Amino acid sequence: MEKPLQLCPGSVKIDFASASYAGKADIAATAAALLHALGPPRTPPCYQLPLAKVNSSLPLWSPVICPSTFAQKRPMSLPSPPPAKKLQVQQSSSMLPQDFPKLEVLPVEKPTKLQVRRSPQHVSPALKQDSPKMEKPLLPRPATFIDVMLSSQKPSSEMWSETKDVTLTRKTNCSCKYSKCLKLYCECFEKGRYCIGCNCTNCCNNVNHENARQDAINVALERNPAAFMPKVSNSTAHNCESKAAEGDIMGKHTKGCKCKRTECLKKYCECFKASVFCSENCRCTGCKNYKSNADRISQKNTVHAHHVQNPASSGMVGQSVIIFHAAENDSSLSLAASVSDHSINNNTSHALSCSLTSSVTREDAKSLVKYVPHEVTYRPSLADIIQIEDVNELCNLLILVSRQAGATLLESGMKENTKRKKLNRVDSCLSSTNHDREAIQKEPAKQMCSLEKSSNEVLIAEGRLELPRADPFDIQKGNKRPLSPGTQALMCDEQDAVFQDSKAPDATPSTTEENLVDIFKEQEKRVLTNFRDYLCKLATCGKLQELKLSLASTNCSEQAFADHGNNSSITRVAKVTRIRQTIPQFSSKAASTTALDV
DNA sequence: GAGTTTGAAACT
DNA sequence: CAGTTTCAAACTC
């Protein structure tokens, strides 16, 4: 006997509208059509839908099935397998399965499977009429331990997502043949859901075999009480790119994996599959599924030569690994850092990682890797080339150049001023005072003083010179934070201007300003010229260093490959070629950068 | 799509 | 607990 399904306020909520906010417009439309076919609820809904999330084009009522009414008024026989297609709309997440019957509307091709139709045009014509066929309403079943656990442990959104996954948009259907979908081999069973639209054979993971299913659940629970618990705890799946980029990935597999061959970088690995890094729970071998992408790359060079144990087991896991790698900022590495893409870009990263791992053994590398919680450190590629002494040296050089330029021009300027003063003296007939003369002469002296002070301040900052006594230019007094040489130089210029305004009011403005402008121009010119030359030298050093390390790493890699006998000459040649190709790129880039900067 | 590989689950 | 077998998904061709 087939009767149209009637909706009434009750304990069952079929959240069709949720499909809409899951971005499944077609499904939502299907659901809407289904609801329309079923007719509106006769009374206001018992539960409010999350209106903010509901597509306005969809009915806002919450379709509800009243089990009691359903059971009492329309007692239906439990038929043998349904004849044709059916759609099972599972209960919403917040409801326990025993509370609600299941709505079946569309026939399924397989007797024991429930097919999902995703497009409105696939809705059964019978549905588009007002009388869906209820061949087999699912009676309430007792809540299983799984149901309780899953319901209690997951927020409703997650549960609904999973429910959606099962009923409407599930991407993975099992294909079990021998387990009857009643063992944990079966993904559906493992996740505590019925097989719906699966390709399994002899499936018992459905309501028709509820008893067998319950038994299987009990067996599984007996063996492992956490068998149906979520396998990933505290999960922040690292396919969330923003979090991954920030390194804010905390989830881990509760049981861990034991991968041996896949380096935990394939979906065979449960951790990888669950989008979490391997953790201390894992007992994997050659693991590369841990946070530091650079370490993955580094290990890629040594994994062939060494049996690398799970870094998590040695504390080298998750947040704790410092990237001991040069090219963290490299775009190719950023790409590789995308956790969803665990493939490693071998072009630049390989060369760079080779450079850094070239001459170290695994033990050396271990000692080099430092552990700092929740911190990732960027190590510049020129870190070993540019030392603080070099920076100081550069600063000194620039200061000296600046001083020389200033002194040279000041000397000529003083001569001019002296001439001009003599003329002024004649013109004013001894009207000028010594004060005036001193004031004028104080200007170049002040310039010299200024330059001297800026130089001294650099030296002070370097710790090479003791702090002078009370000094009007002492920017470090008053417990202020020491300034960089560049800042000090800038402030020195500013202070010169102040000094000029306040202490040389009597100086001839035009003459002094012209001199100063000339001095500054010359100083700037010489400083920049020397700075450019310095950068060119630096670029050369970097180039040589890279070449040296690359060649060394090439030799190292070749030896490693040779040790394991799985190297090919083609691969080696390709790697060497790749490494060497990076060198001119770097040097040309550095040169162009230098030219632009200068 | 068939065959192979892989690792978890199940079993001993 | 370790080793082996079974199983199904992932992967390769």
TrEMBL record:
Its main location: nucleus. Residues 170-292 form the CRC domain. The keyword Nucleus applies. It comes from the Eukaryota. Residues 72-92, 114-138 are annotated as: Disordered. PROSITE patterns: CRC (PS51634). This is CRC domain-containing protein. The lineage of its organism: Eukaryota, Viridiplantae, Streptophyta, Embryophyta, Tracheophyta. One of its GO terms (biological process) is regulation of DNA-templated transcription. It holds the Pfam family TCR. It comes from Oryza glumipatula. Keywords: Nucleus. It is found in: Nucleus. One of its GO terms (cellular component) is nucleus. Transmembrane segments: none annotated. Belongs to the lin-54 family. InterPro entries: CRC, Lin-54_fam, Tesmin/TSO1-like_CXC.
